[in-house]
Design goal:
- Helix 3 packs parallel to helix 10 and helix 6 runs parallel beside helix 7.
- The protein contains 15 helices and twelve strands.
- It has 401 residues and is of the alpha/beta class.
């Protein structure tokens, strides 16, 4: 096949990573290789593979054909030289930070409103290991520059679209600032997906995905992946051989299958999210809606430029006016079509309460600093009929009266 990078995104999503040539046949779809060992006629070949002087497979902690196919697909969709897959999104975040040379005595500047587990990884684990961590509102470029100047960090870590407040990072400007101060630029692109944004085109050094979300897209796989240069991929490879956060072949196959319909799903999820956000913004029981597709969102114009007309994402959040935790729980229990599950990016519409789930590891004071109140609900739009989703939200809100 001709160079896929000359093709449109839906075409690349369908064909990327597939049909690796075999000696006398080519499978249409990549098979699942559950084996833990590989045999070669010559032990010299085995030795060369261990030495990475020739391609091949020896043991699944070092790689497997099914995982390699998924990695090739993700590198293609993100426009990167290479990719490395992991058993979870958090495994990918942790490995990317280590590959960016975050060590004791170094620093990290990070977005204030990161995913809760990422926040805890930085503020608990890495801080305990002697890493200086500064959290900053990445929409304030002056504050970011001041933090970079103060910390001289090894890495600047942001989310393209933040979880759960839906702030949008100015990736080109942030990438320039990171490199000006000698920091690696790490971007968690989970909420945007490669369909909406390719951070490597905006100076990112590492692009991270929880492939459990939009990439897999069907609520049946846990995986993570980092897309980067070939040199940085070699660092990730050596790290993961020791740490062992290996993606299994069955999960890799499911994640690869998910990439085939990524553009179709994300287009529908974006369209649904816009309609839901517009409806919620006019609802008397909702005090605030966070969604970059709304004209009043502070980064609406930036989002339109960054996402180049592809949409504004499939996730939004909203505050139920005057609601406490118990009220939000009643709202979630009253839902019929929308599912109260602690994930996102699926074909199903999902809701969660960040204060007690995705950001439960933060203290009350930390959540207040970030801006996560007890009345906040995060919604990930599925691919159902938008009118049906809205009707379900309407009846659940009415149940609170």
């Amino acid at each position: 096949m001709t160079d896929l990078r000359q093709k449109g995104f839906p075409t690349r999503a369908v064909h990327a990573g597939e049909r690796a040539q075999r000696p006398d046949y080519t499978p249409v779809a990549t098979p699942i290789y559950p084996t833990v060992g590989y045999l070669y006629d010559s032990i010299d070949d085995l030795d060369a593979i261990f030495a990475t002087t020739r391609q091949g497979y020896v043991y699944p902690r070092y790689g497997s054909p099914t995982v390699a196919a998924f990695e090739a697909a993700m590198a293609e969709l993100e426009g990167g030289e290479a990719a490395h897959a992991f058993a979870s999104g958090m495994g990918a975040v942790h490995a990317a930070l280590l590959a960016a040379r975050v060590r004791a005595g170094t620093g990290v500047v990070a977005a204030l409103d990161l995913y809760g587990a990422t926040y805890a990884l930085l503020n608990r684990l890495l801080a305990d290991w002697g890493v200086t961590v500064l959290f900053v509102d990445v929409t304030d470029l002056k504050a970011v520059e001041a933090a970079l100047s103060e910390a001289k960090p090894a890495a600047l870590l942001v989310e393209t679209i933040s979880n759960p407040l839906l702030k949008v990072a100015d990736l080109p400007a942030l990438g320039d600032l990171a490199h000006l101060h000698g920091a690696n630029f790490l971007v968690d692109n989970t909420f945007a997906s490669p369909y909406l944004c390719n951070p490597l085109a905006h100076n990112a050094d590492f692009v991270i995905h929880s492939a459990t979300k939009f990439i897999g897209g069907h609520g049946d796989v846990m995986a993570g992946v980092v897309i980067c240069s070939a040199e940085n991929r070699s660092r990730l490879y050596e790290l993961n051989k020791l740490v062992g956060g290996v993606l299994g072949p069955f999960d890799a196959w499911l994640a690869l299958r998910g990439t085939k319909t990524l553009s179709l799903r994300v287009r529908q999820q974006c369209a649904n999210a816009v309609r839901i956000a517009q409806w919620l913004s006019e609802h008397p029981q909702v005090s605030r809606v966070n969604y970059p597709g709304l004209p009043e969102h502070p980064q609406h114009d930036l989002s339109a430029r960054l996402f180049d007309g592809g949409g504004f994402g499939g996730v939004l959040s909203f505050e139920i006016a005057g609601a406490d935790q118990a009220t939000v729980f009643r709202f979630m229990e009253a839902l019929d079509l929308c599912l109260p599950a602690t994930t996102l990016g699926d074909i199903y519409t999902l809701v969660l309460h960040p204060a007690t789930s995705s950001h439960r590891s933060l203290s009350v004071e930390e959540r207040e600093r970030v801006g996560i109140g007890d009345g906040l609900v995060r919604l990930s739009a599925g691919i159902e009929e938008a009118a049906d989703i809205i009707a379900d939200l309407d009846q659940a809100l009415a149940a609170l009266l």
